[in-house]
Amino acid sequence: MHNDLIVIDGLQYSNWDRTIFEQLKQGGVTMVHVTIVYHEQIRETLLRISEWNRHFELNSDLIMPVKSADDIRLAKSVGKVGIMFGAQNCSPIEDDIGMVSVMRELNMMIMQLTYNNQSLLATGCYESNDSGVTRFGRQVIQEMNRVGMVVDMSHSAERSTLEAIEISERPIVISHANPISFHDAKRNKSDTVLKALGNSGGLLGFSLYPFHLKDGPDCTLEDFCTMVADTADLMGIDQIGIGTDLCQNQPVSILEWMRNGRWSKEMDYGEGSKSNADWPRPLSWFKDSRDFPNITQGLKQHGFNDADIAKVMGQNWLTFLDDALVPRS
Questions:
Q1: What is the pLDDT of residues 164-198, one digit of tens each?
Q2: What are phi and psi of 285, to 5 degrees?
Q3: CA trace torsion 1, 81, 171, 320 (10° rounding)
Q4: Per-residue DSSP letter, 273
Q5: In angstroms, what CA-CA distances link 250 with 30, 112, 172, 220, 260?
Q6: Which residues contact 308 (CB under 8 A, 6 or more apart)?
Q7: Does the pLDDT at position 274 exceed 60?
Q8: Which long-range contacts (CB under 8 A, 24 or more apart) does 70-73 make?
Q9: Cβ atoms of 84 and 44 closer than 8 Å
Q10: pLDDT at 268 over 90
Q11: What pLDDT is recorded for position 270?
Q12: pLDDT score for 283
């Protein structure tokens, strides 16, 4: 069954090379949303895009750029892995709203309004005070809606996330997070947020990053699938998907840069503990993209029917993107 599915991973940030592209194909992945930006500004973002152009050139037998939802279907039909660009912060637009359309023209399809800190647009989930979406943020959301760039609130605080859902004229995503009821992590989301997201037509991508799961690296596939089922009851089966947050073959220095950027002289441990100062031990049932069939099988064993498995594994993402990526005049 797995090989027939459209499988979409709502987010990865790996140290990309041909081996990882081969693993994606071996795991039956049709499309992956790749983070090309964390803290990079405009020039650095252009360099990341240039690097990806080289990846496409050297690995054209394995990967292809995704410029529309139909390209995801094309990737499936030709047996390649589609690559969709996204940003985990608003740094690539700096303080210029005109950069939203420029970045969209360069195929940046998804942008988070914040990483963990306060940004020019909204409040990150590690801040003590959540002041909500800013004046600039409201304008950027409207512009993202216009050009067909998806609003992502994965790393944003509660009030900011709820306001973004309300302000946006198009449904938004939380591409990689889990319910806080499953595991109490700052980046996981309350039932209030998840209900609002589901009611608005938005989408949640379940994270497989161990720090976001109950029992961390020892979280079982059965527990993960129970979380999926419970969230389907809360939000609706059509509003959930996968966003693994897989960070493969990255050194600890990258983890430190992700958390610290250029704003801190000291290590930011995020959750407030040195226990997560390193990359976590991977899940036994999901070490890399070759293990995607394990999720399909786990959902089946949990009692999901074939149609609902197809939705969770990628069809919901595809349906969402069919509208979300189309610019409006």
A1: 999 999 999 999 999 999 999 999 999 999 999 99
A2: -100, 0
A3: -40
A4: -
A5: 23, 21, 28, 24, 16
A6: 232, 237, 299
A7: no
A8: 72/6, 72/8, 72/30, 72/31, 72/318, 72/321, 73/6, 73/318
A9: no
A10: no
A11: 59
A12: 97
Give the residue carrying structure tokens 């976590």.
280
End-to-end CA gap in the chain: 40
Could you give the CA distance from residue 327 to residue 125 in angstroms, rounded to a whole number? 29
Q: Rounded to whole angstroms, how far apart are CA atoms 176 and 34?
A: 12
Task: Among 3.30.470.20, 3.40.50.300, 3.40.50.150, 3.20.20.140, name the CATH number for the domain at 2-324.
Answer: 3.20.20.140
Tokens of 319: 């349906």
Amino acid at 270: G
Cα 210 to chain centroid distance, Å, stands at 15
Q: Once rounded to an integer, what is the mean pLDDT over residues 72-82?
A: 98
Residue with the two structure tokens 């995020």: 270
Nearest to 294 by CA among 2, 81, 31: 2
CB atoms within 10 A of CB 313: 27
Amino acid at position 319, single letter: T
187 in Cβ contact with 154 (< 8 Å): yes
The secondary element (H helix, E strand) that includes residue 1 is none
Residue 275 pLDDT greater than 70, yes or no:
no
* 70 Cβ contact partners less than 8 Å away, ≥ 6 residues apart: none
Q: What is the pTM of this model?
A: 0.95
Length of the chain: 329
Q: What is the pLDDT of residues 126-149, one digit of tens each?
A: 999 999 999 999 999 999 999 999
Does pLDDT of 276 surpass 70?
Answer: no
Q: How big is the CA angle at 71 (ends 75 and 204), to the nearest 5 degrees? A: 95
* Residue ranges covered by each domain of the chain: 2-324
Taking Cα atoms as reference points, which of 329, 303, 162 lies closest to residue 232? 303
Q: Are 210 and 217 in contact (CB under 8 A)?
A: yes
